[in-house]
């Protein structure tokens, strides 16, 4: 089971999720990382769930067209949309309030 480390506002939250989990779906049903993850549409249209990948990004699939459209140059800074990631490996993310 992937171990997810989530950083927000100087705090660190950690938990394990089932393989194939999506953090926005989990937050929507009030599981980890709820209530810490900011999100809105869950479909890659708003970019509210944008997070900077601190570690484990090399194991993620390449960004899809929704991430490319919403994040643009921020992809090069290591940002991804949490709603577009189905997790199979350990991952460390940071949601930066200014990036939302």
TrEMBL record:
InterPro entries referenced in this protein's UniProt entry, alphabetically: 2Fe-2S_ferredoxin-like_sf, 2Fe-2S_ferredoxin-type, Beta-grasp_dom_sf
Ranges where the 2Fe-2S ferredoxin-type domain occurs: 7-85
A Pfam family the protein falls into: Fer2
Lineage top rank: taxon: Bacteria
SUPFAM superfamilies listed in its UniProt record: 2Fe-2S ferredoxin-like
Name this protein carries in UniProt: (2Fe-2S)-binding protein
Lineage: Bacteria, Pseudomonadati, Pseudomonadota, Betaproteobacteria, Burkholderiales
